[in-house]
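Budget justification note: compute hours in this period were largely spent on complex prediction jobs such as the one shown. Inputs:
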Amino acid sequence: MYNKGTIIPGLILFVLFVTFPVWFNGFTTAGDLPKPELPPGGEKQCVMPAEYMRANHMQLLNEWRDNVLRDGNREILEIDGKKYSKGLQTACMQCHSRKEKFCDSCHTYAAVKPYCWDCHLTPKETASKEAIH
Amino acid sequence: MIEKTLKGKPAYWIWLAFLGMFMAIGAACYVRQYNFGLGMTGMSRDVSWGLYISQFTFLVGVAAGGVMLVLPYYIHNYKEFGRITILGEFLAIGAIVMCLLFIMADLGQPMRALNVILHPTPNSMLFYDAIVLNGYLFLNVLCGWVILTAEKKQVKPPKWIYFFVYLSIPFAISIHTVTAMLYCGLPGRHFWLSAIIAPRFLASAFAAGPALIVIACLVLKRVAGFDAGRKAMDKLVTIIIYAALLNMFFVGLEFFVGYYSNIPGHKHALEYLFFGLEHHGHMYNNLVPFMWAFVILAFGSIALLATPAARKKNDFLLGLGCTGLFLAFWLDKGIGFVLAGFVPTPLHEITEYIPTANELGITIGVWATGFMVVTLLYKTAIGVEHEIEG
Amino acid sequence: MDKQRRKFLKIAGASVVAGIGAPAVIRLTSNSALASEHGTAAEHEEAPAAGHGQASGHAEEAPQGVRLGMVIDLRRMNENPELLDGAVAACIAAHNIPEFPAEKIKQEVKWIWKAPFESVFTDHSVHHAAGKIKNFPAVALCNHCDDPPCVRACPTQATFRNKLNGIVAMDFHRCIGCRFCMAACPYGARSFNWQDPRPYVKKYNKDFPTRMRGVVEKCNFCGERLALGLEPACVESCKGTGAMTFGDLNDPNSEVRKVLDKEFTIQRKPTLGTKPSVFYIV
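Corresponding output:
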């Protein structure tokens, strides 16, 4: 092989560079699984089983969004005796009141930035400018 | 062929660097706007479209103007245009690129632009505008490239390309018609609500587009040793003069309808543009100088171009006339038409619009991008031309 | 998506209740047509085809389904200016509407607002009008037109007419911010978020979102409150005064129809053929 002296170190550098995310995570805490906080109010029941919600909450939210806004279907759901009006603020945040400890823990881990929060308010934000009404 | 753009005289590189500098300024300004929102511009609740959309409207015309070369050459077999038809097609590419960039700069949520395709809405004129603009861009890229390649190989262009060449003619008409329909179908905006908007747009397009091509030819003659031919230029100027006169005629008709019918709604915007509109004791007239400059430049340039001595013997006067006309129609359509439509507001109040420095930076950046595209394409076309001649 | 929906319904065994405020919804919209798609369209079909054959371009066609509308009694508003201010404030509080300072007034966002009579009714002459008209505090808001030009213009269906109740609604998730609808609206009812509105929202209503920069917004006839059986915020703030009446324009027995049948009302720019659903008593 020609230029052995440069090609082999070059290849090693290249492999190290490409696999950077893998071994970097090995040395840092980025690899730890997130532990989203359960509702502070102690609610055990969601609109769907936790397993389903974990995988499909985004589809469910999109479905609710289209139901409420586009189809004018704002029916109130009653699940196991509890009433939910479809909506991120009006249903989800009622129990999962700490977005920073619940939603963000996984979203940060997965490096996703849902734009929900550009408009929808978290209880913490609401508290910063509380309406008297 | 694209390698032709990589070799040039120092002046060529200085010109590219000059454009690149403005592109960089435009990009920096856009980053600022993207991060803050369109509040960086001078637009407001009342004047909700500004410089971006008015530039877009004008440039659609420049793009459509290229058809004034394609049509005589391919339909009427007017051979004199043989050398410059490619310039018309490449100018259209640059102009459409600018149009699309201006639209993107104007969107409040540019990341969602594809919603226009994901949720197609046939009742919206913007849907058709997206189709015809992108279609026209595609057709010009395809036709320009295939025909130039054939020229380089010194063979006849393949037969199938003529289908697309002919198709590009109705597309050129439709891009400007649909752009006019963005405006002229809106109830309550009296200045725009006029059936003559589409023909008026086309008339000014068929003057401004070819005028820019004449200017380009004069520049190329000096810097690139490319001669379009006296006869071709002369014919082009004839087209420009007729189209420019038609546009002025149409503007006059708007005045007749407004002032003879004496319906206030039809007069307000014209009054605002040309004389100033008084409202609650305040005179609003910040567009008046632009509009009179338009009238004077338009008639002055038409007179200059219509004088045979100026047109036929003196390149400087020919260039001056075409520049004047291009500027005149830029003032008319690229400034006055869009902004005046928002005066007065639906509640008969008046808000004036003054672009911000950041907005001007983006606008100049987009223009520089368009000129860059056109420069590179023209460099390629003329490189090929020189190659087969030399 | 459909499959998931079915699965969702099956697993959760969700049952739908009309909500605590169901009686109020019924009162507002008659026969709970708001909640049910099939509604009472049949009942309305017998209504005379008043519009047909008339030369005027702005005649209304035979009513179909529910069409929510409003009558605003400017006489009452004139007697008691606080009513209007209260209605505007109620709307701002309910919808997290930002309030911009004077130097940013060009970026203003407003859903319902006070404006002079001659601005709201540009087609009506105030020449030799009764003195009281000249300084009349009139009120402007989205007309929820039956044939809305903004919906025609929107390239993404981000604004659309809700078929169940006639509300012209906005889907902020879909809006690309092209502002075609703002150019199209002949009533100046639409506002754009030229920047992030949150710093200018004085108080948050926890049950309603704010908006993000780069989208258009406007009055939604309080669709979110109607679902809970409440009246629109502005109407509720004028409760008991008769200044604002809300209900189904297509239901001959609704409160709003009773007012319309009795009083002489006008609409904004009726000649444009948009068929506004907001009526005014002057």
